[in-house]
Amino acid sequence: MSTLVTSSKPLSSLRVDALVLAVAASSPDTAPSPRAPGPRVLGVDSLPPRLKESLGTSESLRALGVSGARDQVVRLPSGGEVAAPVVVLVGVGPLTTELPSTQTLRRGAGAAVRQLAGTGSVALALPASDVERAAAVAEGALLGAYSFTAYRSGDAGATKGATEEVPAITVMSSVADSRELDARVERAHVVAEGVRLTRDLVNTPPLDLFPQAFADAATSAATSPRVSVTVLDDAELLAGGYGGLTGVGQGSSRGPRLVKVDYAPRDARVHVALVGKGITFDSGGLSLKPPTAMETMKSDMAGAAAVLGAVRALARLGVPARVTGWLALAENMPSGTAIRPSDVLTMRGGRTVEVLNTDAEGRLVLADALVAAGEDGPDVVVDVATLTGAQLVALGDRVSAVMAEDEDFAAKVMTAARRAGEEFWTMPLPEDLREGLDSTIADVRSTAAGREGGMLTAGLFLRDFVPRLPVGTGKRRSAADEGPRVPWAHLDIAGPSFTTGKGYGPTGPGGTGVAVATLVALVEDLARG
Predict the structure, then answer these.
(1) Which of 159, 225, 316, 345 qualifies as a cystine partner to 243, CB 3.0-4.6 A?
(2) Residue 161: its pLDDT value, please?
(3) Whether residue 496 has pLDDT greater than 80
(4) 437, 427, 413, 428: which is closest to 517 by C-alpha?
């Protein structure tokens, strides 16, 4: 992982390979014309006179092909005006205020560092005159400095186009000597490590990352003395009545696992259960996917990977909250032993599910894990899953969905997501769609009768398995009983979990690590009360 330091030295004296400056685009409300306000370098007054002169006008920037569009990176020779041989201009898009937002800076820093892969050292001179903005630059830079090279052979021909991440990053800020910034930079390192772990797991081919291998990775990642790991294998799942995990996993030669990663500090103020879908490869089972739809299905365990990354980060940060991560791991394969459409599964806790489509398997493993999580008596529950293609249709590949009955809890998730710099959008759980899950032979159908609102009906299905608060007895009641449910949120990250294009901001192609930062921020907020 890259090293990152902060500095308040003059830009002219920085001995780095590349000096990065931010460029704002003209307002989208401005009609294009030769006299219209154009791109402008932010913080141009801090540059040496000749460099300031050459980069200080819109005309000169336009002549260099610089538009200021988000993620645009243009490299220019410094001409000896600064110690760095190269000046890099990164576009941050149009600004609605004089200073860019933390999210704008996070994205700009990430885009620059990601596209400067292969450069030895980089200094980021973005407008970061306060702790919040300087921390955002650090966060974006560390997230952008990621590459997955585990399967590169090292042969020059085989690795043509491969790049190495920037090893040394300097964030320029007038508050570089602030203890508060030091703490925020340390937090950024820890969260970035959690995101990197998640990305690594998502990017690993399913030949090598199957349920037991994922369980082993979780055990290896739990290095804190305050974290314990428990793994239930396929035989224990069968004996424990985990019909969802057992059913989904029985078509594969590599059996399912349920992993519990428990971070339990002595000063915990709240108990949060994080439940992650971990389908290490999803062929669709007997309801087989088209071949092209399987190409990214190694990412169907991104929810479980995000939970693992978040628990590890929270433990390293020492957040005063008990956090129990549940990784529901299975491989969904077609075979003579696979479950069939019309089979009925008995889930953990006794509820029965009529399976209509074996490609709707994620909700089955999550249902078991939600019930198991409830047996531990958490104060709140959040599940994270690459659950539905309907999420991608509704919100695209960069905005994740939040569903929750409790509007206040949904608002807390959204607040955490904004602080983390991740895009989420709240979606409803309409009661009139619930009847589509009614079954004539079981307690519930796995999928609704119609295609309408598929993301929402998946959330409604999961809601049936969310634990309920104690009523009178002081004990947890099962999901089948009456009574209010524990505050719960369902995060559908199907589209944003994996990038098939060139990347954007701090996110390159492949696994994105989405939801890790949001989960960390949410638990921090809950711990603060």
Answers:
(1) 345
(2) 47
(3) yes
(4) 413
